[in-house]
Amino acid sequence: MDSRDTDWDGVRLHVVTGKGGTGKTTVAAALALALAAGGRKVLLVEVEGRQGIAQIFDRPPLPYEERRIAVAPDGGDVYALAVDPEEAMLEYMEMFYGMRTAGRALTKMGIVDFATTVAPGFRDVLVTGKTTEAVRRKGKNGRRVYDAVVLDAPPTGRVARFLNVTKEVAGLARVGPIKNHSDLVSGVLKSPETAVHFVTLLEEMPVQETLDGIAELRAAGLPQGGIFLNMVRESLLPQAVLDTAVKGGFDVAELTLGLKAAGLADGDDATKIAEALAEEVVEHARRTAIERGERASLAEAAVPQYELPLLADGVDLAGLYELAASIRTQGVA
Q: Which residues does the UniProt record annotate as the domain ArsA/GET3 Anion-transporting ATPase-like (predicted)?
């Protein structure tokens, strides 16, 4: 088994959240591959019912069972689980009350929907409880079944409430199995074994949601992890050129002469091409300046940051392994 120092040594539950559209599930999947590399066994958990994990690994919809979906670089296995609240409810009733058969009858009556409408936090306890059970689970040899668990969590705006299970069920049960179970789940989620990572783009809204999310985690006493800057585009122009373009000083005439000298265009065509290229340079420079400002804002959170490149061909399986390699190169896993 591969052994190396990482930024998150000792962390066994990696919670991944982010604003919709930032690539949260993609990053969670790549992180699971990175953590499994070198002979480890990692569980990737989905809780929103979107079957995003199955889609990204090009698999059929996942059932409510843990099954291997990928082989990691240098050996190692990634297992996946799509948590179903009703099935989790049945396990819960069997575990604490020995009522699995009765529980099936109750689910047909819509008891899960009823319970979670009355106490919305109860559904979160069910799905986070299944995840933390996988973190704690040991095999017959006394060793942990999984070296790490990656949770593809709800979006940033809901993640603090989703993870703060003790508070969410306080009005539902102050004593008894539900309270004891939520305390056990909370003990894992608030321990040094857990890290909550944020996925963002270098754009104003996702960056602000990330900063707000980190503040909410800190207020709730939940352990924040790192920030993954996803779909980062590398600038191909020197900073001096970008600064000039932003200020409106980009010389179209000089670019026209350059095109003519290189034999790429002549006459009016050279001028038209130069003007079009100049517009693209100015747009690129403005976007780069905005991204630089967003980086500065994120730096105020004082947590580790990692960059994942924008993949020209989109995220297929090959791209997923490329992202996993980048994660390992940066010392995340």
A: 13-169
pLDDT in tens, 138-193: 999 999 999 999 999 999 999 998 998 766 665 555 656 667 777 888 899 999 99
CB 130 within 8 A of CB 112: no
Per CATH, the homologous superfamily of domain 13-233+310-329 is: P-loop containing nucleotide triphosphate hydrolases (3.40.50.300)
Where in the chain are the domains?
A: 13-233+310-329, 239-287
CA nearest to 96, candidates 175, 178, 173: 178
Tell me which of 12 and 50 has the higher pLDDT.
12
Q: Tell me the β-bridge partners of 229.
A: 200, 307
C-alpha distances (whole Å) from 160 to each of 17, 45, 118, 216, 217 are 10, 18, 20, 6, 6
Q: Is the pLDDT of residue 232 over 60?
A: yes
Tokens of 252: 């179209």
Q: Give the CA dihedral 6, 11, 12, 14, nearest 10 degrees.
A: -90
CA 254 to chain CA centroid, nearest Å = 45
Helix (H, G, I), strand (E, B) or coil at 196: strand
The arithmetic mean of pLDDT across residues 55-64, rounded, is 93
Q: Per-residue DSSP letters for 218-286?
A: HHHT--EEEEEEEEEPPP-S-HHHHHHHHTT---HHHHHHHHHHTTS--HHHHHHHHHHHHHHHHHHHH
- Of the candidates 47, 14, 19, 48, the residue with the CA atom closest to the CA atom of residue 31: 14
Average pLDDT for the chain: 87
| pTM value > 0.85 | yes
- Euclidean distance between CA atoms 311 and 317, whole angstroms: 12
Residue 102 pLDDT more than 70?
no
